[in-house]
Amino acid sequence: MAMSSRSGADLALLLLGSYRNLVDEVVRELATRGYPDARPSHEYAIRAIRAGADSASDLARRLAITKQAAAKTIAALVERGYVTTETDPADIRRKNIRITDHGIGLITEGTAIFDEVRARWEGRLGAAELVELETQLAQFVGDSPINLDAPGWAAGQELR
Amino acid sequence: MAMSSRSGADLALLLLGSYRNLVDEVVRELATRGYPDARPSHEYAIRAIRAGADSASDLARRLAITKQAAAKTIAALVERGYVTTETDPADIRRKNIRITDHGIGLITEGTAIFDEVRARWEGRLGAAELVELETQLAQFVGDSPINLDAPGWAAGQELR
DNA sequence: AGTGTTGGTCAACCTGGTTGTCTATGTCAA
DNA sequence: TTGACATAGACAACCAGGTTGACCAACACT
């Protein structure tokens, strides 16, 4: 019996479930590779920093969160040794963020694992099908205020 | 130029972005229809209650969260008038949950809106394509501890 | 009875955000 | 040069939606 049309609520749960499944796997694997306390938000933040957000306010704008939230995130990153901060000599107010080797390691491994999991899915669906799926999802995301480059909305507690 | 293979991290963001897009729309629309303070978790919880979880411990098991968390959720539902509780005459410890008309209204409208949004997506993708997408997502979710019927993991702060 | 299980509650904590307020510094224009 | 405004950051309090841990009261079973 072709199950045909599911409910909209189920669709939502499918989307979120897939996301969490993917991300949980990445976090788990990251833990076994020497980053036991890494959270998805750390990855996103470090990526944003690497992409040019070199101060708290900058990061806040990039992630589309408040600067207070950005400051907290940075504090967490410093605590874990993923970044360091030092006062900008040219502007005493600013604290420039620099990613440590450990931080680089995190996003390098993170990216690799993300891609590994994606490859696994690709193996199951077929390359063309996965690309199509991504294209379709991009359509859903496209017509919205949501900005893939500013995944501040990606927060929540994604792992338990 | 066919953009072909995206990164695994992007895939994750696409999934989450689609979810939030869908859910945000539902919450927004719900607000305009007389449920301004409804949160996704409320909907999930009321659904679970309607499906038979008539006590806090029950709800906890069903949602796969702690009973304390379930109790908090129920308190929020009572506060908003979506459910009422009364002590079970047959077992003084239990507090039976009953969904109010307002609560029924919430999930009725919620379901309708979810389906409307899904229908909109269907209109864009085509019916067959959407079903295929759902089937593919179900595959990703299927091989995991994630249980669509126990969306406790769906929490996080899904809306900003 | 006595022992163990179950339902619920209190309290403290965590994460990742939010507002609101404040100071210190920088910038720019009159 | 000064005075107005913008910006960087920090502090404090709060919120949602979870978590642990400790507990008590009520039920169930032998």
Automatic annotation (TrEMBL), chains A, B:
Pfam families: MarR_2. PANTHER family: HTH-TYPE TRANSCRIPTIONAL REPRESSOR YETL, TRANSCRIPTIONAL REGULATOR, MARR FAMILY. SMART domains: HTH_MARR (SM00347). Residues 8-142 form the HTH marR-type domain. Gene3D superfamilies: Winged helix-like DNA-binding domain superfamily/Winged helix DNA-binding domain. This is MarR family winged helix-turn-helix transcriptional regulator.
